């Protein structure tokens, strides 16, 4: 009976110690526009007000390697597929049960992954020819003005 009373007292003390505690999940990435295979490092920016040690559950979106993590600041995440990626972080307290200390932050289309050659300007042979004519023609015009004297 004595152990039961002591356990109950400790539970009440622990619960009251975390009254008003709150965690608000947030994060950032060192890069949000990358090419396939380029690494992204994430940093936890959760506001933890009295919740104690937190447990982290990351989901990096489709095509990520690794797809998820449980560390506070995951590094070296790569993507094998192109397109916008949604990233989610869920935090919860490690030692208590408190809904105010559990929170999820989801950033839709947070990481944009491009193909290696995607978005590079393509110059067709016709465009290159016109560019050459323009440059060469300008050079001839300028040289002609200097040759004429006056």
Structure keywords:
150 residues; alpha+beta; five-stranded mixed β-sheet; two-stranded antiparallel ribbon; 2 helices; 26% helix
Output the structural class.
Answer: alpha+beta
Question: What's the SSE pattern?
Answer: HEEEEEEEEEEEH
CATH architecture: Sandwich
- Total count of domains: 1
Q: How would you explain this protein's 3D organization?
A:
The chain is of the alpha+beta class and 150 residues long. It has two helices and eleven strands. Strands 3-11-10-6-8 form a five-stranded mixed beta sheet, with no helix packed on it. About 10% of the residues have low confidence. It is elongated.
Q: In a few lines, what is going on in this structure?
A:
With 150 residues, the chain is α+β, with helices and mostly antiparallel strands. It is built from 2 helices and 11 strands. Residues 4-18 have low confidence and may be disordered.
Walk me through the topology.
Layout: H1 2-17, E1 22-24, E2 27-29, E3 33-35, E4 42-44, E5 47-49, E6 54-59, E7 64-65, E8 68-69, E9 78-79, E10 83-93, E11 103-114, H2 125-147
Parallel strand pairs: 3-11
Antiparallel strand pairs: 1-5, 2-4, 6-8, 6-10, 7-9, 10-11
């Amino acid at each position: 009976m004595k152990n039961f009373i002591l356990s109950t007292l400790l539970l009440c003390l622990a619960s009251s110690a975390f009254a008003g505690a709150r965690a608000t999940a947030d994060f950032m990435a060192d890069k949000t526009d990358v090419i396939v295979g380029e690494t992204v490092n994430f940093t936890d920016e959760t506001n933890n007000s009295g919740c104690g040690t937190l447990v982290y559950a990351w989901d990096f979106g489709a095509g990520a390697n690794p797809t998820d993590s449980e560390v506070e600041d995951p590094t070296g995440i790569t993507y094998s597929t192109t397109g916008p990626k949604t990233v989610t972080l869920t935090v919860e307290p490690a030692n208590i049960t408190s809904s105010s200390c559990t929170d999820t932050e989801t950033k839709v289309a947070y990481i944009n992954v491009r193909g290696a050659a995607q978005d590079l300007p393509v110059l067709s042979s016709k465009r290159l020819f016109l560019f050459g004519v323009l440059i060469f023609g300008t050079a001839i015009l300028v040289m002609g003005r200097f040759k004429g004297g006056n």
